[in-house]
Structures are given as C-alpha cells and as structure tokens.
C-alpha cells in the first residue's frame, strides 16, 4: 500500500531509563508501522529551576525519566537496523553536540519554541528539524519561520499541536494546519515544507480527521509498550495494538483514492455485460445474448 504520511513514534520518558526497554520500543515501532522513532534528552537540573526542584518532590522524581547518554549510539544503530529514522529532542544547548553524530533529525519541543539559539544551533548541523507549536501564538511561530528564512534553511517541518495532556477533540484546533501552510506559503520558502500533527488527544476520531480532511504529511504520537511507562498515566500515550490499527486503516483508506478518471475498473469489465440492455431492459446485453 502506498503511504501518504510519515509516522513518528514519540517514546518520551516511557523507556523508564532501561536500555532493554528502549530497544524494545524500537522493535515495536517498526512492527507497528512507524517510519521514525524519537527520544528526548534532558538533564533535570537544566530543565527546572533550583527553586522548583527544592520544593517539589514530584519534579525531583523526574530524574529517573532521563535518557542515559551512553544509550545513544546503541539506540541509533538499533533504529537503523530496523529501517527507522532516529531522532531526539534536545532540551539544552549542549545536547545538540552530543546528539549530532547519532540522529537523523532534531525535534524542537513546543516548550522550547522560544529558544531561537537552540533552533539556530540545530540548523548549523544541516539535519532535518521538526518543531511543534503547542501553546504558541502566531507571532512566536512567525519568529521561528523568520529564523529559517534568514538562514536560507528549508530542511524543516512543522507540527500543529496542543500542549494539553490529554487534549480533548474540541481543544485540538486542527484548522491550525491550514494556517501554518498559509504562513509558509506567504514567506516564500523555495522547498516544500511539510506540515503535520503532533498528537496528545489519543483520539481515533482526531487522527482520522487530521488525515482525511487536513491531509497531514506527518503524524507524531506518544507510545508505550505496556501501560508501565512513566508518562502513560497522563493518558496521551497509545499502546502498540491501538496505534497499529489506526495506521492500517489510514493506509488502507489511502488506496481508495483512485485516479480521477471516470471509467470501469479492470474487474468491472465483465460486469458491464450484465447491465440493463437499453433496448429491452434484459440482461446480459443483446449482442452478448446473440452469441
């Protein structure tokens, strides 16, 4: 089946700091139909201010959510063996140097959208960049696009997104996909920029709507293996059997589009003989009956 969409598996912190579990995610992502797998790299002390960590045990406990840097070459190699692109979200500037030898693409999280220095450093690597626009206003999105334009860099994609975990369908605002395309066109980028949907809704209806009405070219979803991932309780992560069914239906539906020509399908040609004959209304048509 010809696919019209690229699927990204967001592992986030559901790996639970286990290398074995990380590798299992990559295996499952391949079997589920994903094209890419994406992790996140952060250091808790660089992610939250010391005053937050001092007073909040909930935030301190996220130390166990960190991805171990020494996993990166192993995971990158394992992804490539599985035919998957390997990407990662850097949450601090120096992480880009750490990731550069291993990733096929960088993902800028919605929370880092104001970090133009981070985006500019990713541009310098000349790798593909994807960024999400959760909780952003239009002015902030335009500032990022201006940076790409200034750097004459078109090797990037944008994901419409809502940073609500989980997002109710009526909070998704999929029409932002059209707005993003219009902004891109108005700025005159020389190469086509893909627009997709980064999902936190965990809603089949939203994913089908995004594909069938808004023609998204990329879809990013959070996945978990077994409901035991650190972020699964936030109710925005899909399990493998759930998301693979969605992908199958999307891909299968895409084969129904056809070619715009009004003519009988190959398997209809025999059936044409059994249409009502215009002369007497009987079947098969008269010239066939005479034979």
- How many separate domains make up the residues? 2
Helix and strand composition category? alpha/beta
Shape: elongated
Task: Summarize model confidence as the mean pLDDT.
Answer: 94
How are the strands of the largest sheet arranged? 1-2-3-4-5-6-7-8
Query: Given this structure, which CATH class of the largest domain is correct?
Result: Alpha Beta
CATH architecture of the largest domain: Alpha-Beta Barrel
Tally of contiguous helical segments: 12
SSE arrangement, N to C: EHEHHHHEHEHEHEHEHEEHH
Rg is: 24 Å
Distance between the termini: 40 Å
The CATH topology of the largest domain is given as TIM Barrel
**Which band does the percent of strand residues land in?**
15-25%
Count the beta strands.
9
Low-confidence region ranges: none
Query: Helicity, in percent?
Result: 25-40%
Explain what you see:
- By secondary structure, the chain is of the alpha/beta class.
- The protein folds into 2 domains: 6-258, Alpha-Beta Barrel (TIM Barrel); 265-291, no CATH class.
- It has helices at 19-32, 44-47, 50-55, 57-60, 72-81, 95-99, 116-124, 138-150, 176-187, 204-212, 240-254, 286-290, and strands at residues 6-12, 36-41, 85-90, 105-108, 128-132, 156-161, 194-199, 218-223, 237-238.
- β7 (194-199), α10 (204-212) and β8 (218-223) form a beta-alpha-beta unit.
- The longest helix has 15 residues, at 240-254.
- The two termini are 40 Å apart.
- The mean pLDDT is 94.
